Amino acid sequence: MTTLEPQFLSPHLSLHTGSDRQQLPLAIGTCWTVGRGEENDFILGDRWISRNHAMLQSMETGEVYLIDLGSRNGSFVNGRRVSVPVTLRSGDRLTFGQTELDFYAPPRRPYVPSSDAEIRDFTATAALHVRCLISVLVIDIRDFTVLTRQLDEQVLSEMIGTWFRRSGEIIRKYGSWVDKYIGDAIMAVWIHGSDVVGPGEMMLALEAVREIYKMTQEVSAQFPVPFPLRIGAGVNTGFAMVGNTGSGDRPDYTALGDTVNAAFRLESATKQLGCDVAIGELTYQSLALTDYDPFQLHSVELKGYDVPTQTHACLFGELGTFLTHQDARN
Questions:
Q1: Residue-wise DSSP of 79-144
Q2: pLDDT at residue 110 tops 60
Q3: How far apart are CA 124 and CA 245, in angstroms?
Q4: Distance of alpha carbon 244 from alpha carbon 309, whole angstroms
Q5: How are beta strands 99-104 and 12-17 bridged, if at all?
Q6: Rounded Cα distance, 236 and 254, in Å
Q7: pLDDT above 80 for 70
Q8: Mean pLDDT throughout 68-82?
Q9: How far is CA 261 from each of CA 101, 234, 235, 236, 264, rounded to the nearest angstrom?
């Protein structure tokens, strides 16, 4: 067990600098960003580190979370790359680019609110801290209500559990995580490390959509469903606030804002458009399409929006042809 020096009885990072170590205290505030950019709390001059690389956030309980901010080369804890927010333990080795730091924290004492005011503060929603460029994927199972009426409850539970589990595995494979399970839908978020999204980054979400579509067909064949399972997908790219929206004892890292809302609306719009996949304008532009374009431009009325929204939509078959074409080019 590591013994902390008296001046570092609060959480801190220990930066490896040759034979020496530099102590970076996590004492002021509850959120600290790491990266090459001058706007970060901890500026690391490592060319392998992104401008806005990662964020650490302290909770009222004393726990400290590490969140990767869509860095190009990833954030690692004890040699394992992290794609979802993780709780740090004293002694954990953090790696950003080619820079290594150790995280240290004193033993935590259980936090017990002592007044009504503290209880309110402890359970209040924490402020979001980072505005990021993100891509949001929403996938919904079509006619799920009809399924619930026609399928045995035990079979339905096993089927939807299988679909959720395999969807999560696919999304993790393509660099994201399932941010929300919402009834018969899932939401995933890709955090981009700059103000520009490259075509390669954008392809990850579309590859995940294609694989989840194929998996859905397999699950449909595996269970005695009254009709083949069908899904719809919406992908939207834009800026959103990313951070903890949970209470002190129940952290919940997510993204909030119009970018997220529009992704849900785009998925819903696939039904009225008679297509399978609808993507937002910035998502479409980020793909930088040249010789083959499966998407058709539509103007749709999205619920809650005063003016029509431009979206680009296609069928799963068209998306598969497009991605196969891209694979052949690469």
A1: TEE-SS-EE--TT-EEEETTEEEEEE-PPPPPP---SHHHHHHHHSPPPP-EEEEEEEEEEEETTH
A2: no
A3: 9
A4: 30
A5: antiparallel
A6: 15
A7: no
A8: 85
A9: 37, 11, 11, 9, 5
